[in-house]
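Checklist before submission:
- one chain only
- standard amino acids only
- sequence pasted in full

Submission:
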Amino acid sequence: MKFSLVAAVVLVLAVAHGTQAGSLVKRDAESDMDKITRLINDMSASITSATQDMVEKVKTMEVANQAQTYMEDSRAKIQPLVEKVQAEAAKLQEQVKPFITNIEDQIRPMTDNFNAQVRPLTDNFHAQVKPLTDMMEKFFQQVMDQTKALMPPQ
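Returned file contents:
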């Protein structure tokens, strides 16, 4: 960065000297010096800003790389635990399977008996309610038909 500034100053001074030597009218030395100073300050500010932007981008890339590395390390550490838990869950499932089958075998006769007792009751209830629902359906259909007949044609 220092080399760039020195090179820029030398270039500005060379340009200023060349224009001053070719000019027939002598210019005000203070005015040229102010212009050169402003130009150098502007260049310095521009270079400083660009350098800061570059540093920020590098820091951002480093943080992203660190996060990626952390994620990969964490995944590598957790993966064996996940596999171990899955293996234990499979073992537990195999151990519990006979108990579940036994419970199902014990409950099945009770549920079959319950269904056998409830089925006639629900069938009887349905048979008694069916005429009422049919009558209500016909009634609502008549009301709809009469309402449509009262509406003006569209």
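Reviewer check: The chain has a mean pLDDT of 81.
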